[in-house]
Design brief:
17 helices; citrate synthase activity; transferase; Citrate_synthase_AS; three-stranded antiparallel sheet; tricarboxylic acid cycle; binds acetyl coenzyme *A
Length: 399
């Protein structure tokens, strides 16, 4: 394009695509989204089948290595993850530096970056075996760091990993175990979290995956690349939306206040959080699964009183031309927060519950980017709209 010029002084052609709405930044074989049809597949497998029949660690293997593992591959993979759940004791010193009630996601972003200082060899990003080693470490340590952020927030002592428990069981143990050593994760809740992890594991070139790829393209180590991705996820328009939905439902308070709230949205005073998506112009398939899952969880925890507000909001919005004409449907964040809240998580922790499984997607995208000979350092251009050349004005002449 830059070679197409009307004369020698001409800049040439350049594609202007703010927010990359219509730009494919890479070729990828990991995740397919057909936003018009509401389809999501990991490595070709429909998300509905994976949510029903698979487990998070199996899906992690699939996303990272391209195929479902056989029995021995899965056993080995699970063993490797289990062996790396502990974090260096000095990481606690980093944790202790945070204000106890600081947002858990801010702590996660910082601690992921901090982890890079423990693993100098992780900078060898062109070495596939080094990459694999740190991919395993990150997937293993995410729940430990997250659970410790949770305990720090509550002023409770950290619980060390129990490698006899599964990925989610160990996470729940580190979160919720009190003084007695007999804590047993409820199997319905453990399975629900596992399914939520599957649903959140990857979503192609979203804001945080693009951040992981862009920062990783500078050959930055995976810990810092994922710190950047987590920072992107933190925002309320991305992974922070689950938290924003819960705050919104609380603010609405009861079903009678919904019409007034919807009017405010239509007058552009606010957005209906958990609605709309850059790619889905149809019902987000993950939201459909999560809506079903919510009922299973509520059978154990008791119904979340905010559910009625969410259901009524959805009903009204899907029957209102403002939302219908703009193809605004519930996204993954609309119902997930209700489940998290019923399990006992404070809203500030919701984005962290998104980041743990999404680390797998970031790592899969990061690895694919590094293995693709066509990928170079990410470096978009711009359309310059500033001043023409002008001479420096001394202070005394500036008026
Ligand atoms: N509530 C009200 N109106 C909305 C909403 C919403 N949630 N989302 C989009 N719109 C409207 C916009 O006002 C705009 O209307 P207009 O054309 O009349 O100006 C139109 O729909 C298109 O909106 P855009 O902002 O251009 O859509 P975009 O693709 O840039 O944004 C986004 C997508 C950020 C997800 C947006 O829908 C949003 O803000 N949703 C609420 C936050 C949210 O739930 N985020 C989670 C997304 S899923 C995830 O990241 C995991």
């Amino acid at each position: 394009f830059r070679g197409i010029k009307v004369d020698d002084d001409d800049f040439g052609l350049m594609l202007y695509d703010p927010a990359f709405k219509n730009t494919a930044s890479c070729r990828s074989a990991i995740t397919l989204i057909d936003g018009d049809k509401g389809i999501l597949r990991y490595r070709g497998y429909p998300i509905e089948q994976l949510a029903e029949q698979s487990t998070f660690l199996e899906v992690a293997y699939l996303l990272l290595w391209g195929e479902l593992p056989n029995e021995s591959e899965l056993a080995e993979w699970s063993d490797q993850i289990t062996n790396h759940t502990y974090v260096h004791q000095y990481l606690i010193r980093g944790m202790e530096g945070f204000k106890w009630d600081a947002h858990a996601m801010g702590k996660m972003v910082s601690l992921l970056g901090t982890l890079s200082t423990f693993y100098e060899d992780s900078k060898q990003v062109r070495d596939a075996s080094v990459r694999r080693e740190h991919i395993i470490k990150i997937i293993a340590k995410m729940p430990t760091i997250a659970a410790w952020c949770f305990r720090h927030m509550q002023g409770r002592p950290y619980i060390y990993p129990d490698n006899e428990l599964g990925y989610v069981g160990n996470f729940m143990n580190m979160l919720f175990r009190m003084a007695e050593p007999s804590y047993k994760p409820n199997p319905v809740i453990a399975r629900a979290l596992d399914v939520l992890f599957i649903l959140h594991a990857d979503h192609e070139q979203n804001c945080s995956a693009s951040a992981a790829r862009a920062v990783g393209s500078a050959e930055t180590d995976p810990y810092c690349s994922l710190a950047a991705a987590s920072a992107a996820l933190y925002g309320p328009l991305h992974g922070g939306a689950n938290e924003a939905v819960l705050r919104m439902l609380r603010e609405i308070g009861n079903v009678g206040n919904i019409p007034g709230f919807i009017e405010g949205v239509k007058n552009r005073e606010r957005r209906l959080m958990g609605f709309g998506h850059r790619v889905y112009k149809n019902y987000d398939p993950r939201a459909r699964i999560i809506k079903g899952l919510a009922h299973e969880v509520f059978a154990v925890t008791g119904k979340n009183p905010l559910l009625d507000i969410a259901l009524e909001l959805e009903k009204i919005a899907l029957d209102d031309d403002f939302f219908v004409s703009r193809k605004l449907y519930p996204n993954v964040d609309f119902y997930s927060g209700l489940i998290y809240q019923s399990i006992g998580f404070p809203v500030e922790f919701f984005p962290v519950l998104f980041a743990i499984p999404r680390a797998v997607g970031w790592l899969a995208q990061w690895q694919e980017m590094l293995s693709d000979a066509e990928q170079k350092i990410a470096r978009p251009r711009q359309i310059y709209v500033g001043a023409d050349k002008r001479d420096y004005v001394p202070m005394s002449e500036r008026g």
